[in-house]
Write a structure and sequence with these properties.
mainly beta, three-stranded antiparallel β-sheet, elongated
Length: 121
């Protein structure tokens, strides 16, 4: 789940599209139109965004994207690329299994060594 909004002057989160956010640690990206995107940081959110640690009041008025870090890796091998009539690009790919955030194909495993692969199109 991803949440968006702006930072209030007291450092709380202005979440206009939702009324509840689960207490926990989230990654946050901040953006101020006159600057670039700031480096992501981790914040602890409590009381539906009313309490944020560390306090974000120095970023008042900036826009944010808040979400959980995705630590899952997926590896694909593209097997076919085609361009349709209206310049729509279609890809066909094989998804390779991953263990410990490393593609098993990189470990010398061949497609005959496993049954858990998927063809995507």
């Amino acid at each position: 789940t991803v949440f968006t909004g702006s930072i209030n002057s007291d450092g709380s989160l202005n979440l206009p599209l939702i009324s509840k956010i689960k207490t926990g640690d989230y990654k946050i990206l901040l953006y101020k139109p006159s600057n670039s995107v700031r480096a992501p940081m981790t914040v602890h959110v409590d009381k539906n965004g009313a309490e944020v640690n560390p306090n974000l009041s120095k970023y008042a008025g900036e826009l944010f994207v808040l979400g959980l870090a995705n630590t899952t890796k997926r590896v694909f091998r593209i097997t076919d690329v085609s361009i349709g009539e209206e310049a729509e690009i279609t890809l066909k790919a094989l998804e390779y299994p991953v263990a410990n955030n490393k593609a098993l194909i990189a470990e010398g495993m061949t497609t005959t060594d496993w049954n858990d692969y998927h063809e995507w199109s």
